[in-house]
């Protein structure tokens, strides 16, 4: 059934983390409904919108890292996680 995709441990972790993020966001929305606010992004966003922006930014950081350097991808992941935390907290 899933033979069409090359399932590696990295791929499985990626999808598991995305699933956990979605479940966490759903639970947070049920327990504490989101309030739109404006942070340093200069646009009014909700918690879910900030998560989406953070995922996009992290993806672009990793793509650009691959394009312009041969250094370890873990460094790009660390930078992406730090930027994501900033966006989620203050964006």
UniProtKB/TrEMBL annotation:
InterPro entries: DUF2160_TM. The chain crosses the membrane at residues 12-31, 51-68, 74-89. Pfam families: DUF2160. The keyword Transmembrane applies. Keywords: Membrane, Transmembrane, Transmembrane helix. This is DUF2160 domain-containing protein.
